[in-house]
């Protein structure tokens, strides 16, 4: 068996493949390639492109994982599919995964908890590889955050702890990352910020839902500008 010490992944690889990979390589380090670790940028992708996908490519080139689990279906996006092909073409060991199951759904315990929003979202994504049963106090929603985990996680600290999580991140906790109906669900009377990563196809959903529910639509390329942060703070304060 080949020596596998570093495993990269993005999105939500199929749980069965995660389980088998962990059994095959129990001592390997798992690295979420979606995250901006501030490694040197490559020029492989256009500058005007989804920052999360650019993170994936840049991280892979710098960290050189021995194996990459690469979601390519409706649970991720076409850009994830393209990234998997590029990395495989460059010689990386890539396993493509598709996780489009809509059932069974797990009970939501983190999205609706009293944790700070930053902790909610990082705990949800952390549970993809190392699942830990959560038993957290539940609270009514006063605000909502809809979207994927942002490249700029610091913007999550602008929100009060009474913020519920919606969108793709909610689908991840439910264990159904390709569930478009759940992704489009929000509590319509809860003031919600609809976030999209710039150049991401999900901006189509974010803008539509923000208009439908009188929320705030924001898209951020890299890191939030002062004006974007001020816009979010004003929306939360005035809602």
Structure in words:
- The model has no long low-confidence stretch (mean pLDDT 96).
- The termini are far apart.
- With 239 residues, this protein is of the alpha/beta class.
- The protein has two domains: 6-97, 3-Layer(aba) Sandwich (Rossmann fold), CATH 3.40.50.11890; 117-238, no CATH class.
- It is built from eight helices and eight strands, in the order E-H-E-H-E-H-E-H-E-E-H-H-E-H-E-H.
- The strands form two sheets. The protein has a four-stranded parallel beta sheet, covered by helices on one side. Strands 6-5-7-8 form a four-stranded parallel beta sheet.
- The protein has helices at 15-24, 51-63, 78-89, 117-126, 168-174, 180-183, 203-212, 226-238; strands at 6-9, 29-32, 67-71, 94-97, 143-146, 163-166, 192-197, 216-220.
SSE pattern: EHEHEHEHEEHHEHEH
Helix content: 25-40%
Largest sheet: 4 strands, parallel
Q: Tell me how many strands there are.
A: 8
- Strand-pairing-aware structural class: alpha/beta
Mass-distribution shape = globular
Proportion of residues in extended strands? 15-25%
SSE map:
Elements: E1 6-9, H1 15-24, E2 29-32, H2 51-63, E3 67-71, H3 78-89, E4 94-97, H4 117-126, E5 143-146, E6 163-166, H5 168-174, H6 180-183, E7 192-197, H7 203-212, E8 216-220, H8 226-238
Parallel strand pairs: 1-2, 1-3, 3-4, 5-6, 5-7, 7-8
